[in-house]
């Protein structure tokens, strides 16, 4: 199955190369609306013309930072078509969620959709495949393999310095009463598996790997340790301080809630590295060896 998927990708990539009239190499200019593809392109040091919503990318994804030389091409769901036409990228890379924009975007440049977080697949293996596909498309194959090896080395080092931990209940707040709980098919779950940690949420999730729940669901997991991934919606922290329900939740009463800086929940290897490092550090692990592995 994986070999078939790789063959289909190679055929699509070859078609794009034919359409643009040259091999898509390290010098080919690429634009993307998708932050997961964007962070991977930047991590591979590929040539990037434009990324959508750069300010929000820095808020939600954080790293790798988008260089000043990369143009902000507008909203992910409503890109600046005029600016894209001026940039004239040789290819625009998308994920399936932006399929409705393809007809307009293809008036400017060929587009190629790259899959990730496909239901029923191994999320970690799919992230590795995406990394290799982007590396192949941009002739950064060696950089892709180096990123994969670096990630595995860092995760192995982090796993060695992990202290014992209760199962983790990983959430992002929608508002003061509702959270996204991350489980199967999510980046956070894939990373915790790589680290040998237990995810408390074993119930169903959507295709993006989360289930929307009221915060009262946390009371059903009294032994779990709550992990909150920022950013919090405006005003949520103040509302939680006033919430009697929140103060009575087991993890809150024990004062062992972990709050992590933003990590793109639908990310690839750069986000996986960032999440693993922040999580282990928050669990009071000694991350010095992992820092060496990251270098």
Structure summarized in a few sentences:
The protein is 43% helix and 14% strand. By secondary structure, it is α/β, with parallel strands linked by helices.
How many domains comprise the coordinates?
2
CATH superfamily of the largest domain: Nitrogenase molybdenum iron protein domain
Strand order of the largest sheet: 3-2-1-4-5
Per CATH, the architecture of the largest domain is 3-Layer(aba) Sandwich
pLDDT below 50 for ≥5 consecutive residues: which ranges?
15-23
Note the gap between the termini.
Answer: 34 Å
Q: How many strand elements?
A: 10
Radius of gyration from the CA trace?
Answer: 20 Å
- Give me the number of helical elements: 13
- CATH C-level category of the largest domain: Alpha Beta
Percent range of helical residues: 40-55%
CATH topology of the largest domain: Rossmann fold
Average pLDDT reading: 88
The main pleated sheet reads as: 5 strands, parallel
């Amino acid at each position: 199955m994986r070999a078939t998927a790789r063959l289909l990708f190679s055929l699509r990539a070859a078609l794009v190369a034919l359409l643009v009239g040259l091999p898509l190499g390290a010098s080919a200019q690429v634009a993307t609306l998708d932050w997961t593809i964007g962070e991977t392109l930047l991590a591979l040091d590929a040539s990037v013309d434009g990324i959508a919503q750069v300010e929000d990318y820095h808020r939600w994804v954080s790293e790798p930072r988008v260089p000043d030389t990369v143009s902000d091409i507008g909203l992910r769901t409503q890109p600046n078509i005029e600016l894209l036409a001026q940039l004239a990228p040789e290819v625009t890379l998308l994920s399936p969620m932006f399929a409705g924009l393809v007809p307009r975007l293809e008036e400017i440049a060929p587009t190629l959709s790259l899959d990730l977080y496909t239901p029923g697949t191994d999320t970690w293996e799919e992230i590795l495949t995406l990394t290799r596909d982007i590396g192949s498309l941009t002739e950064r194959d060696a950089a892709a393999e180096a990123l994969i090896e670096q990630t595995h080395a860092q995760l192995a080092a982090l796993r060695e310095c992990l202290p014992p931990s209760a199962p983790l209940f990983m959430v992002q707040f929608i508002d003061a009463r509702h959270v996204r709980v991350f489980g199967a098919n999510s980046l956070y779950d894939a990373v915790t598996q790589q680290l040998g940690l237990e995810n408390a949420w074993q119930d169903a999730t959507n295709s993006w790997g989360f289930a929307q729940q009221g915060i009262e669901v946390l009371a059903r997991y009294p032994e779990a340790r709550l992990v909150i991934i920022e950013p919090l919606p405006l005003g949520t922290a103040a509302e939680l301080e006033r919430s009697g329900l929140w103060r009575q939740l087991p993890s809150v009463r024990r004062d062992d809630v972990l709050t992590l800086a933003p990590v793109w929940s639908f990310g690839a290897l750069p986000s996986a590295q960032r999440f693993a490092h922040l999580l282990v550090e928050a669990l009071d692990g000694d991350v010095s060896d992992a820092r060496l592995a990251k270098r």
